[in-house]
């Protein structure tokens, strides 16, 4: 029996925190980090319709099983990363499984060394072992990027070393250039191939001070995402040697990833490469301004303990840690938006023990409009709502 509205309790009639947050993100006049993916269907379709004619000839036939606009996207990615070829995948989870499965067949070793906080270990329900016959080997559990010492310390042979750049669950951290080349060299010494989980690799050029092709050249293969940094509708690419890419196409078909038509996703990815990719260094630089202003605002508000991690962001995303439970922080964030029209923190908060929580935030196009004073004032107002 479906209850009538009058049968529901007052709590059941009240909008949930998730609904309130979504409304705040959509309607607040000022939002620090408002990703385009949060838009309505109408907004997303309108944006794609406006951008598509600028990136591809819409009088060309629609793609069929990966030709046309999808092939054009693959060529563009290979050119940007300086690889022989690239292949489109509907998801990064599939792209990386296929890449490492192909490498395992070539090396004869299904063991993949990766960080304990890497995406396949934390967010993919053990897909490597359950689906692809790969055997994850933890190279480090420390909340920092993998080092040469970590690789040298492995107590068994591995066929591949997978490095997530940046390491999202440690705070979107990137190694120094010397640390990265050291880890890669250590893998080579162990006769292991190197694969970059570069879902957000597009953002790394400012930190490394090097172009994408020089960064990608360190690895034997690279995966990149089209929605995490570029605002696309989805999709990913695997880039590397032509022979690996051709083999990956075969496995993509076997995994069910050769989709009949993907032109909306491909067009949105091309638009992201044209519109967002050139702006990412600016986002990273302004994220550093925002991070410093948050620290100053929290200090001015007299919070007993607050942390921005890393203090100087490596990408345009970073973490904010505060000494309160998630429910308290979520309520303060949404109430600030509802009462002032300013949403400082639009993502949820995760607990890391009693009275300690963190959220992820960052800077995109909307965030460039925030001055350091804007951020400090918003941080002081937010802190005042914590009670």
TrEMBL record:
Residues 66-295 form the Aromatic amino acid beta-eliminating lyase/threonine aldolase domain. It comes from the Bacteria. GO terms for molecular function: L-allo-threonine aldolase activity. Its cofactor is pyridoxal 5'-phosphate. Keywords: Pyridoxal phosphate. Residues 1-18 have a biased composition (Basic and acidic residues). InterPro entries: ArAA_b-elim_lyase/Thr_aldolase (IPR001597), PyrdxlP-dep_Trfase (IPR015424), PyrdxlP-dep_Trfase_major (IPR015421), PyrdxlP-dep_Trfase_small (IPR015422). GO terms for cellular component: cytosol. SUPFAM superfamilies: PLP-dependent transferases. One of its GO terms (biological process) is L-threonine catabolic process. Residues 1-25 are annotated as: Disordered. Belongs to the threonine aldolase family. PANTHER family: L-THREONINE ALDOLASE, L-THREONINE ALDOLASE-RELATED. This is Threonine aldolase. It comes from Streptomyces griseoluteus.
């Amino acid at each position: 029996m479906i209850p009538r509205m009058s049968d529901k309790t007052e709590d059941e009639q009240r909008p949930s925190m998730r609904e309130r947050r979504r409304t705040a993100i959509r309607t607040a006049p000022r939002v620090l980090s408002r990703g385009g993916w949060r838009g309505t269907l109408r907004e997303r379709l309108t944006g794609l319709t406006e951008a598509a004619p600028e990136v591809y000839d819409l009088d060309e036939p629609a793609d069929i099983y990966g030709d046309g606009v999808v092939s054009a996207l693959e060529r563009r990615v290979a050119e940007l990363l300086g690889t022989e070829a690239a292949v489109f995948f509907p998801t990064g989870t599939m792209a990386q499984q296929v890449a490492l499965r192909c490498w395992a067949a070539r090396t004869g070793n299904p063991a993949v060394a990766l960080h304990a906080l890497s995406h396949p270990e934390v967010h993919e329900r053990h897909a490597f072992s359950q689906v692809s016959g790969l055997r994850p080997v933890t190279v480090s559990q420390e909340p920092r990027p993998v080092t040469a010492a970590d690789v040298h310390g492995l107590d068994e042979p591995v066929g591949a070393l997978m490095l997530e750049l940046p390491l999202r669950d440690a705070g979107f951290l990137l190694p120094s250039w010397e640390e990265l080349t050291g880890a890669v060299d250590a893998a080579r010494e162990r006769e292991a191939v190197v694969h970059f989980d570069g879902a957000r690799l597009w953002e790394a050029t400012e930190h490394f001070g090097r172009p994408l092709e020089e960064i990608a050249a360190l690895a034997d293969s690279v995966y990149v995402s089209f929605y995490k940094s570029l605002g696309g509708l989805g999709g990913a690419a695997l880039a590397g040697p032509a022979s690996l890419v051709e083999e990956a196409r075969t496995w993509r078909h076997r995994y069910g990833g050769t989709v009949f038509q993907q032109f909306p996703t491909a067009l949105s990815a091309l638009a992201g490469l044209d519109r967002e990719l050139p702006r990412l260094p600016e986002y990273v630089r302004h994220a550093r301004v925002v991070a410093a202003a948050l620290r100053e605002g929290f200090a001015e508000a007299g919070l007993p303990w607050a942390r921005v991690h890393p203090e100087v962001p490596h990408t345009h995303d970073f973490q904010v840690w505060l000494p309160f439970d998630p429910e308290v922080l979520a309520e303060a964030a949404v109430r600030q938006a509802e009462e002032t029209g300013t949403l400082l923190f639009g993502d949820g908060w995760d607990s890391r023990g009693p009275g300690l929580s963190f959220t992820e935030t960052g800077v995109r196009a909307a965030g460039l409009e925030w001055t350091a004073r804007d951020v400090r004032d918003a941080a002081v107002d937010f802190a005042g709502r914590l009670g």
